[in-house]
Description:
2 domains; Rossmann fold; globular; Dihydrodipicolinate Reductase, domain 2
Amino acid sequence: MTPVHIGIMGCASVARRKVLPAMAALPGIEIAAIASRDPDKAAEAARAHGCRAVKGYEALLDLDEVEAVYVPLPNALHAAWIDHALSAGKHVLAEKPMTTSASRTGGLIAKARARRLVLMENVMFPHHRQHAVVRGQLEDGAIGDLRAFHASFGVPRRPADDVRYSAELGGGALMDAGVYPVRAAMSFLGSDLTVLSAVLTHRHGQHVDSAGHALLHSSGGVGAQLTFGLDHSYRSSYELWGSAGRIVVEHAFTPPADHVPVIRLERSSGVQEIRLTPDDQVANSVSAFATAVRSGRFPDSGGTLQQAALIEDIGARARRCVDHTPGLADTIQTKELS
Ligand SMILES: NC(=O)c1ccc[n+]([C@@H]2O[C@H](COP(=O)([O-])OP(=O)(O)OC[C@H]3O[C@@H](n4cnc5c(N)ncnc54)[C@H](OP(=O)(O)O)[C@@H]3O)[C@@H](O)[C@H]2O)c1
């Protein structure tokens, strides 16, 4: 397969830490250029990958040798740059969430299809093989009939200027962290999910939600309780609770490539831990994108569309709460600035 020549739009942390190293190691991808608003940043990143440095994203789209772009910009900027990239005839791998609105996501997917271009959202965890093993256990009746689903994704607080705390840039816990438990619920409970209720919590003085939870149910009556947050000790797990047992998966959503997955199966007969060989979900996701570009077989966008609709619905239905813990915001702010 001729490698897909890809251009990188912005020197984002996720690009530098995860996606660029995975792309560099894959034969199906060649990093052709890295663009940044800051030419020095672009030059430094490009040096590390032996590719061209470009100032500005528009200039990246003007390059003929770039046939696809990776968009790891702040959430609110995804839509406009995906749109520009598609208009310029480039395939697009977009960071999650694809956009901050379900209708915009739908419009861009339609535009990509009409132009025979691949547009894929980089939700990586479904590309990890551990979830197929869990699905197999469920289908084999290991825990009986599924009665309930719980999923959580939360990360510790970041510096105050992180894009996740900017409402203007599409930040907030629901947009950033909520995607994972929502997508996990979809993959085990099916596509017919309804949002029953939700709560989004804002820290006093902050413009975005820092935490949330949502209650969903499937058409078959199975409930899903989802929790997410940006000011939490690290948690990345889900649990399937059935009539005859329980399956628990820790490190479910962002396991590193060397992580040894352990699937915990609890039944009346005892507890079994199924150890799997490590898998690299970042490489798998990027590889799926490259294969789609080269084969012309477009990735199924149904999951992206449904996820966008559910995220929007959770946001629309959520009761908003303000956490007034006295002095909390000030304390955190002072610590981070010192
Ligand atoms: N799939 C995953 O596992 C995963 C993990 C983490 C993050 N993400 C997603 O990746 C995206 C980026 O997240 P991140 O944490 O990597 O963000 P980040 O480090 O803040 O990077 C965002 C990049 O966007 C560019 N940018 C353009 N306009 C900007 C503006 N007004 N303010 C700030 N940056 C601007 C900057 O690049 P230049 O200055 O170089 O132009 C910046 O480096 C988000 O959509 C996030 O949801 C996905």
